[in-house]
Amino acid sequence: MDLVAVEELREDLDAFCAEVFASIPRKDSRAWGNCYLRGLMLDGRRKSIQPMAQRLPDGNMQALQQFVGQSPWEHTPVQRRVATMVSQAIDPDAWVIDDSGMPKAGTESVGAAHQWCGALGKQAVCQSAVSLHAVTDAASVPLDWRLYLPKEWAEADDERRAKTGVPEQVGHRHKWRLALDMVDEARSWGLADQVVVADAGYGQIHGFRRGLAERGLDYVVAVPGGLNAHPGGAVPEVPEQEAGTGRPPLPRYRTPARSLKDLALEQGRGALRRCVWRQGSRGSMRGRFLVMDVRLAGKSAREAALADAGGSRAWDGVLPAQTLIAQWPPYEDAPTDYWLSSLPAETALRRLVRLAKIRWRIEHDYRELKHGLGLDHYEGRTWRGWHHHVTLVSAAQAFLTLRRLDPKRSTSV
């Protein structure tokens, strides 16, 4: 977007900024927030502060650096207002959990460490952020962010943490737990509950799925085909108690658990159902899918079922049922993609598949967040600066998304 195009949006942008930055007490700070958003939206290869300030007629590098890196304004009320506006406007079909790596040249930036970087597809020095998005087939906008702190940062000496401003109470926390924290925060903001969608990095973790179930939230999550499970109709039996032994044995399934892949292969191609889940730019998106009930096996599943039953004496041995969705393309020897869903058994196949596939929107809009709005261009090193920057990027994308969906409407709600 060139300077002329940005100036043409100035009136609407001013109204948008007045609303989302209302919690920032200083008028001059709110003005620099407006300036920063215009810098993010302007064309340019780099969206770090110095080049943005040079492109803007009213740009001031020192003032923008102070606003993002040192100013004490709280990012959470701004993110909350953006999340509320977006959720009211787009009526999301799901909340999508995602994470992304932001490559760094060294380990001085807060949270930067040698770890898996999805942006580069390899291990590299980067920051890693977990995000929660409101999603429809037409749009997605981040609702919240969490910066992942590797163990080496959580255990770092006080000088290193103090230098980057990491709060004392913040330590190492698994990404799936950060995701649940964001779900809790979104609900505390009064946002309506949504089906949660996530990739296999989250879906394969029993604690994550259980955490959603404990919150009364349904999910459709990708899983690896190697997870072990029993068919949904399998019934456990209580083995005969040997003479002279103590407590009666726990119920057991007669046959060993098998991988989701093997369970799907046992059903065969005859069980496949055709499904068109949405219209893409090149026509209908369609495929063949298998749907069946399964009961995930494993230590975590058994321990959770025991706890839910109140102990071994009350447990009947039945593991919770979930719906397996497997995509099996023609000319493939086995299904290529697997998802687990907690939605009711009568849920239409088209809805199940549409939710399973809706992460495509995140991948599409992450390109705008990174390449168009400079999500990973911030060069500051502090905890505060990072959170300010990602919040401002979220606000810029929200403004552009609302304009794209309805150019004639006001972006103020």
TrEMBL record:
> Transposase IS701-like DDE domain: from which residue to which, for each copy?
19-283
Stretch forming the signal peptide: none
* Region Disordered, annotated ranges: 231-253
Q: Which SUPFAM superfamilies match?
A: Ribonuclease H-like
User: What is the protein name for this chain?
Assistant: IS701 family transposase
